[in-house]
């Protein structure tokens, strides 16, 4: 054991001294109560610092607390020691050295490296011909920084040895948090190496597949022995099928099949009928080539499936990623990429755009010392800490450094055109922000727009004091509804965070080309010939803006003037303009078969946008308002008792209705909420609920049980009307008063937040000026009808109104035919030029495809 002060700049680092085994034991005795052996369920972080992206590969290595099992880089371990008093840490370091050259000048022959023992999630090529790796572990005792090399079985107490072994052998904590990571641990099929393939001349076409025994065109599996294309079972992957692939195996005994549509350069879904489980096929490329399939030219598409090598789809991927142009890598602050964790590009693109906004930079990175110093004991579970960590990682330039000159020369000599950039892995951030969310916590591709709203919701719920950076997106929408029969109107306002523009397909300027292309495409598919070059619809932006502003019919409109249903029209205008305007192009829709489709269009998005003409004007002279009368609540007799007795029990949710909605492409949790809040009245009624609520920020949030986060009455939830008694539920009032708050505070907060417990607590903390008023309390207690209670006016929405002139500074593009698959890329304008952020690759953009974007970010131009 030795004392190493130089590592931390502690005086006396050169005066190391040897100690006997007994001295080691005596040194550890005071700290033994704080050293724990990881138990089942403990998350052991040994790949990444809780406050930074330092790892064992970093210069200073990584320090794992032997009590909490949290990891810290050199800059942050002292903070944890001061805050918690935990003294014993395991220091992990991976050393990288150039291999010793042989007599001929080449590296010595490779042999098994016994010096690598850390189970790390790194991108190191441990079989590199040019470098060798050595892992080092030791205990470090603070504050004197004593070091004990590991392993040290003879000198260490048994408990310490066991704890160290358990930490070193622990698995990644993210495997516990993400149930979908089983995909990374599939077994290799025992039939893959010696799979027999019949030389029967079968070639699989690029499209037009259908089951050989029925005419199904979905959930199709290619048998890798004889090339038969047959349908799978319904229960295997939640899609339809008659089980003909399994029948074929029982008849012929051919063991392996690959799901058509899942093939990409990275692999495919392979199933072993003999082994009765999904498997890996290391020789899949060869097995597919036998049937004329080149898996190196496949891309992802709709329904979680994948497109084969359609020329139109490849064209889209090439244009958006600027393939074929020599892109210059960018390095330094603000030019750090995010590594793809497997379909995490939707998150990466949104976060790159978010942290290009100064308000978010100031709120998190600008407050870094305060946020880190006051973070909870487990900073991995704190939203503000993880946002600050990610923002600092992207903006500091610490993880985006250009290769040194010697490396550049070597790359030129080797004709390597793409210097490797480090980038950062958002694994810890993704694990936290997607926690308990059934969609974002999976490894499946997601909708970037839905994640944007999910993030805004998290920022709202975790704002730092009065500062809320998401206010820059917030604006008010004025909705004007007019009864067509009486011509009376009603004006209402709602909060929104993005502008959704419809795609005006009818306004395409190249209709003749589109018709000719569609005829040629259908003929090619029918004859199984290569598809023609894609012709993309060209839509004027002005037509989309016009479609947004046009009146739309209101289905089932109830006119309070007529006290009956009538025809109604609705128009939407901006009651305020946000500081940053996010525009989503509504490219995704549903076909007649309820399969999600994407409009593959080109829209001439402007660099300068003026929407001043969309400013709301309010009630106009001569207009007469509709009476403020709520429609009667009509409940079907078979559901009346169930709805009036609060909501159904969550365990009684009709799962068949949930699955019908999920198969339409809606998030699973949203489907469960729709069925729950419509009282199991069927998929059709639940579908209407989805259409009404799908633009809400918490649309895909997990279902919250009444009394603990969403305690609205059944009538209010389903029909949008307040009950006769607006008194919040007593059980929620009791929860808040048990925390020490006054009863009238609890009632006021719950009524201001629609009886949402979590939001009510936020309301109380954000209204410290609210004082107990005895007259108010007496009146509150003596009146059951909330309509006659005099209440303090609730706080209005926070908006930053201004001019309607904007400048484009970022956009996110999607490749593929559905938000459930494909790839996202972000372009951001920095320092006067466009930069493309494609996962960990950050380069100067040569041809930014502004006409193919999905989400556009505009900043207000000061008037």
Automatic annotation (TrEMBL):
Give a GO biological-process term: proteolysis
Q: What does this protein do?
A: Deubiquitinating enzyme that removes conjugated ubiquitin from specific proteins to regulate different cellular processes.
Could you state one GO cellular component term attached to this entry? cytoplasm
Task: Give the catalysed reaction(s), semicolon-separated.
Answer: Thiol-dependent hydrolysis of ester, thioester, amide, peptide and isopeptide bonds formed by the C-terminal Gly of ubiquitin (a 76-residue protein attached to proteins as an intracellular targeting signal)
What PANTHER family does the record tag this protein with?
A: UBIQUITIN CARBOXYL-TERMINAL HYDROLASE (PTHR21646), UBIQUITIN CARBOXYL-TERMINAL HYDROLASE 13 (PTHR21646:SF105)
- Give me the residues that bind Zn(2+), please: 211, 214, 231, 244
Subunit-level organization:
Interacts with UFD1. Interacts (via UBA domains) with SIAH2 (when ubiquitinated). Interacts with BAG6; the interaction is direct and may mediate UBL4A deubiquitination. Interacts (via UBA 2 domain) with AMFR; the interaction is direct. Interacts with UBL4A; may be indirect via BAG6. Interacts with NEDD4.
Looking up Pfam families in the UniProt record yields: UBA, UCH, zf-UBP, zf-UBP_var
Broad class of the protein's primary localization: cytoplasm
What protein is this chain from?
A: Ubiquitin carboxyl-terminal hydrolase
Residue ranges of the UBA domain?
652-693, 727-767
USP domain residues:
336-861
Q: Where in the cell is it found?
A: Cytoplasm
